[in-house]
């Protein structure tokens, strides 16, 4: 899976690494306290789980775009493989199986290597919460705050986030008849990976599902260690042909 064109066009990794970064900041980003940003917590609470989940993945892609070419290449690739596998969960929670990432190896500048490790750790936590049907808001908020932190003085992320939250609320708002918090909603109203692209225009739920199906058809579990094979899916009770083939 490659970064979206809207991110690659920004050439974010070429910008000065002018943001603050230290252990206390890193630890705060690994917290899940809504008190870190009450306004953002309120905005996320208005969204269905699928949108919160997708927003977290999109924010991680911002982090990857920011450190790509500076952080270790294998870490960048690993992060994108994790993101790719997790997008598949929007179709069925059995598609992916993530592992806890290894600690950063301290072979690149800390401002590049450590944020990427935080991003991968948050992906692992979001994965676990999605599988267990637990609250996603805390970890998703962390991905937003992480992306905002590494962007430094660049205003592009804030503009994108405002538009992304508005679009998500328009099409994935929590309704009175939504499932209880302990029941994962991810498989009920899928979010296509391109939903958070600035130029994506929503049409129908059917179109969103078709886009998710097209995404699945392009996946190769033999090339991504975090995607389950067709045989593994069958053992977990998946009926039909995984990945649409």
Give a quick rundown of the structure.
By secondary structure, this protein is an all-alpha fold.
Structure characterization notes:
Helix content is 52%, strand content 0%. It is mostly helical and 245 residues long. The chain has one domain (5-244). α4 packs antiparallel against α5 and α4 runs antiparallel to α6 (110-132). The longest helix is centred in the middle third of the chain and has 23 residues, at 110-132. It starts with a helix and ends in a 10-residue tail after the last helix.
Rg (C-alpha, Å): 17 Å
Percentage of residues in DSSP E strands: under 5%
| General shape | globular
Structural class: mainly alpha
Mean pLDDT over all positions: 91
Low-confidence stretches: none
Task: Sketch the major β-sheet.
Answer: none
Order of helices and strands: HHHHHHHHHH
Q: How far from one another are the termini?
A: 19 Å
Q: Helical region count?
A: 10
Proportion of helical residues:
40-55%
Number of domains: 1
Q: What's the number of extended β-strand segments?
A: 0
- Assembly classification: single chain
Keywords:
single chain, 245 residues, mainly alpha, globular
Write the layout of secondary structure elements.
Blueprint: H1 5-8, H2 23-29, H3 38-45, H4 49-67, H5 73-88, H6 110-132, H7 137-151, H8 156-171, H9 205-217, H10 230-235
Helix pairs in contact: 3-7, 4-5, 4-6, 4-7, 4-8, 5-6, 6-7, 7-8
């Amino acid at each position: 899976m490659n970064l979206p064109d809207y991110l690659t066009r920004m050439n974010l990794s070429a910008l000065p690494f002018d943001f603050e970064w230290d252990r206390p900041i890193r630890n705060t980003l690994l917290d899940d306290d809504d008190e870190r940003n009450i306004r953002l917590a309120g905005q996320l609470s208005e969204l269905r789980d699928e949108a919160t989940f997708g927003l977290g993945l999109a924010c991680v892609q911002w982090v990857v775009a920011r450190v790509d070419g500076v952080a270790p290449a294998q870490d960048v690739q690993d992060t994108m493989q994790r993101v790719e596998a997790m997008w598949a969960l929007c179709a069925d929670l059995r598609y992916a199986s993530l592992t806890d990432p290894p600690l950063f190896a301290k072979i690149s500048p800390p401002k590049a290597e450590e944020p990427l490790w935080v991003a991968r750790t948050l992906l692992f936590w979001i994965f676990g919460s999605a599988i267990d049907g637990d609250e996603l808001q805390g970890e998703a908020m962390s991905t937003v705050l992480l992306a905002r932190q590494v962007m430094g003085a660049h205003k592009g992320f804030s503009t994108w986030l405002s538009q992304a939250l508005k679009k998500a609320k328009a099409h994935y708002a929590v309704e009175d008849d939504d499932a209880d918090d302990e029941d994962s909603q991810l498989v009920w109203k899928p979010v296509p990976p391109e939903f958070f692209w600035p130029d994506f225009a929503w049409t129908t739920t059917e179109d969103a599902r078709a886009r998710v199906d097209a995404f699945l058809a392009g996946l190769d579990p033999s090339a991504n260690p975090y995607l389950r094979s067709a045989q593994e899916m069958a053992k977990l009770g998946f009926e039909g042909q995984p990945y649409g083939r």
